[in-house]
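Study this protein:
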Amino acid sequence: MTASTPTQTPAAYPPARAWFAVILLMLLYCVSYTDRMVLSLLAAPVSEALNISDTQLGVLFGTGFGVVYALVGLPLAHFVDRS
């Protein structure tokens, strides 16, 4: 029995387009990481300014991240998969 060869080869992307995608994803990751770090660094001042407990602060940050991710991240991923 011989190994079958695929009938279609995957389309090759130009190297410039591939590097553009890598750099864009790297920049987006850096923004995401920085955003998470800024929130944790500013937790105490925000808690004091709003006069809320640690539990309320956790719900505020956790729910805020989840809602933004669900409303922006998932539709954006769907758009990227389709185009």
